[in-house]
């Protein structure tokens, strides 16, 4: 390595220092999903980012989905995936698969990878210690739940003991003796509020909010909550991005300092966003 390269590395670390100081001891919730979970390269980049943040004193909480893995398992047992208004229709058989895949395979594989790469992770699901409580959202969706309560004690205990909590989004029913399937963006936002998090990061498969969806140079780096209705009206925010933005808005209104819609397809996007001068996503604040 040349002296110039060493100097450049030192400059990067020096630039990161004020951000490390800013987030030291603060809680950051990362909703992990999309291509960042599927691609080996991106998965390892995200996990190394999380471990680095943890090692410099940031209290990182990971909330994950697992839609592709659920679909794959349903296919293996000969069951077709069905969606209503963009939500997976969840009958009892599907709920059994959701619980097995999210709380089992996906959660524990993610925990194992974090630990293998030098982190200290513990896997939890929304059923553990009553972390997520929910009621049925609507009969037309089956066993899909709407969160009615969050009990973050177990997550805080993990953080205080120096672990990275990794959480799957299955909730305990309050209106029936059943588990409910929960949207991971919603769960991450609710948990961020309950933990009084400094920041909520939603990893997605797009650049952020774009004024022109076909032109990534039209990225909106900062959006105020008062701008959201007009952006929806102008169809800058549309389709599946509307519930994602709604989660961000609710989190900020409920006390989370800001939320970031971040492109999980960019390696080390979390570090670039948090520990450098170059913000690369859309911040709602």
What does this protein structure show overall?
- Helix content is 42%, strand content 21%.
- The chain has 285 residues and is of the alpha/beta class.
- The strands form 3 sheets. Strands 5-8-2-1-11-13-14-12 form an 8-stranded mixed beta sheet, sandwiched between helices. A 4-stranded mixed beta sheet has the order 7-6-9-10.
- The chain is globular, with a radius of gyration of 19 Å.
- The chain starts with a helix and ends with a strand.
- The model has no long low-confidence stretch (mean pLDDT 92).
Strands, helices and their partners?
Blueprint: H1 3-23, E1 27-32, H2 35-38, H3 40-55, E2 59-64, H4 67-76, E3 83-84, E4 87-88, H5 92-116, E5 121-125, E6 132-136, E7 145-150, H6 153-160, E8 164-168, E9 170-173, E10 179-181, H7 184-194, E11 199-204, E12 222-223, H8 228-233, H9 241-253, E13 258-263, H10 269-275, E14 282-284
Parallel strand pairs: 1-2, 1-11, 2-8, 5-8, 6-9, 11-13, 12-14
Antiparallel strand pairs: 3-4, 6-7, 9-10, 13-14
